[in-house]
């Protein structure tokens, strides 16, 4: 708990790889947290470990000071906050909605306006850092919103994030920053997968390649993180291929709208689309390496068929 700030009643909607860690971090910080997800097993696990679970957003947010939406996209964010049975109908008057999904700036602005019309506050607060950092309360949050929204969310954000970037008073700015990040992240994942599969074609020891590159100028955070998945043959989804189909698709839409070319992101999008079309959309996004391997007739370590 941030020094001098009282605990809050918080509903976390979405207990996936990021949401569960966020909810757990909030609970450890002393907040009264209720977790909600469409998967009853995740709700039961959170309730067993941290105290309270709910089957619906409306139930989870009863009397909540803050609702944290950690879902996939703008449509899901709108549904869990404002739809039939949405959380804000049960939250306290003037409660804060923290929207963590990656979405276009236009969608963030639209949802913020809809939330404002209900009398609630809104933070456009996409997140970065992965499941492990979420579990450690060490995410990077790229947030924009009013001073009142930041003040209402201060203690929750302190529990969620190691780094909070306050990016302005207007919703949509945080979303725009996140799309720049996602452009780079998607391209870096695709490049890492291409490089490792190329190394396999050259007959190199992939574990040694990983060791050498992570200590060399060609390294990136994504190579270091996703490269380990390829070396270990571990494609359990921390972040699925379909996520980058969505995110780089948003980049492509923004590219057309602004008449700004994004050829590297476009190539990355096609690789993620091909990987999804090959039946790996719900697998870890390092599965782009499996696509390269199939094209080249290679076998990666412990990779599933």
Automatic annotation (TrEMBL):
Reaction(s) this enzyme catalyzes, per UniProt = L-threonate + NAD(+) = 2-dehydro-L-erythronate + NADH + H(+)
User: Keywords of this protein's UniProt record, alphabetized?
Assistant: Carbohydrate metabolism, NAD, NADP, Oxidoreductase
Gene Ontology MF, one: oxidoreductase activity
Please state every residue range assigned to the domain named 3-hydroxyisobutyrate dehydrogenase-like NAD-binding: 172-291
Q: Which Pfam families match?
A: NAD_binding_11, NAD_binding_2
Record-listed E.C. numbers: 1.1.1.411
Q: What class of enzyme is it?
A: oxidoreductase
Q: Is Magnesium given among the entry's keywords?
A: no
Which InterPro entries has this protein been placed in? 6-PGluconate_DH-like_C_sf, 6PGD_dom2, 6PGDH_NADP-bd, HIBADH-like_NADP-bd, HIBADH-related, LtnD, NAD(P)-bd_dom_sf
Give residue ranges for domain 6-phosphogluconate dehydrogenase NADP-binding.
Answer: 9-165
Member of which family? Belongs to the HIBADH-related family. L-threonate dehydrogenase subfamily.
The name this protein goes by in its record: L-threonate dehydrogenase
Q: Which organism is it from?
A: Methylopila henanensis
Tell me the classification of the organism that encodes this protein. Answer: Bacteria, Pseudomonadati, Pseudomonadota, Alphaproteobacteria, Hyphomicrobiales
